[in-house]
Design brief:
Belongs to the 'phage' integrase family. The protein is mainly alpha-helical and 278 residues long. Helix content is 55%, strand content 4%. The termini are far apart. The model has no long low-confidence stretch (mean pLDDT 91).
């Protein structure tokens, strides 16, 4: 497996994708051993195994369509790398609803929670993610040298975007103000620091910050990626076009951005509830 993961790294896959693919293959290996009472090798995998594993994920593990598709993307990649041509089940159709974004009320509640705590780092992390839409891994990788902040304008250079693509994202006044307060005249090193001094704040560190204050604000969606969705939804509601939003998010395909124009689960619920109104 190590050689395959190294190959993915050479192909420009993000570390998050590589980690996820590796984890999914380990789970498939565990299932394969139990189901076939033999060790997993590329040569032993059959199309029947793949169909049965998909059925297992759907009906026993009750995994969502997106998760199942990720699993089989990993398995397909591993098989292709090992020169195994096997028919892989078709991707599971994903329901076309918009990702969950925070409402304005929830955004205000989240900001109140972190401001009450007088936590400069927490305030900087949440404000930055909400106003830039960066992915978790992109925010973690940022260095102060990637920031350009003036009185009236600013921007952040994302050097480690998905597929190792670079892009620039403007920093609005709120983000600049909070970042300057947090950085406190630091001029080099990681933007976000852990509690251990000059060490870079990890993915889990940022995740814990978001979870902590989302919980205090009584918000059920407690993941940094929700702030990315919120950034996109706010731009859409402000009247920005999809092309602009796609560039800011680092989307290579406009169809990926278009998902934000679709109704959310809450929108669908409200639509059905209106039928019972007098």
């Amino acid at each position: 497996m190590t050689e395959w993961l190294d190959f993915l790294r050479e192909e420009g896959k993000s570390e998050n994708t590589i980690k996820s693919y590796g984890a999914q293959l380990l789970l498939f290996e565990r299932w394969f051993k139990v189901s076939n009472t033999e060790e997993l090798t590329p040569e032993r995998v059959t199309s029947i195994d793949l169909r049965e594993y998909m059925s297992y994920l759907k009906n026993v593990e009750v995994k969502k369509a997106g998760t199942i598709n990720l699993v089989f993307s990993a398995i397909r990649s591993w098989l292709v790398y090992n020169n195994q041509v096997i028919k892989v089940p078709k991707a599971v159709k994903v329901t076309s609803i918009a990702p969950r974004a925070l409402t304005r009320v929830e955004q205000n509640a989240l900001m109140r929670a972190v401001e009450r705590a007088d936590d400069l780092k927490g305030l900087a992390v949440i404000t930055f993610l909400k106003n830039t839409g960066l992915r978790l891994s992109e925010a973690v990788a940022l260095n102060i040298e990637d920031l350009l902040m003036g009185e009236r304008s600013g921007k952040v250079l994302v050097r480690h975007g998905k597929g190792m693509k670079e892009r620039e994202v403007p920093l609005n006044g709120e983000a600049r103000r909070v970042l300057k307060g947090y950085l406190n005249n630091r001029t080099k090193g990681p933007v976000f620091l852990s509690q251990k001094g000059n060490l870079r704040l990890s993915n889990s560190g940022i995740y814990q910050i978001v979870v902590k204050y989302a919980y205090q604000a009584k918000i059920d969606e407690r993941h940094p990626h929700t702030l990315r969705h919120t950034f996109a939804k706010n731009l859409l509601e402000a009247g920005e076009d999809l092309g602009t939003i796609a560039v800011l998010l680092g989307h290579a395909n406009l169809n990926t951005t278009a998902i934000y124009t679709r109704p959310t689960q809450k929108d669908l619920q409200k639509a059905v509830e209106r039928l019972s109104e007098d």
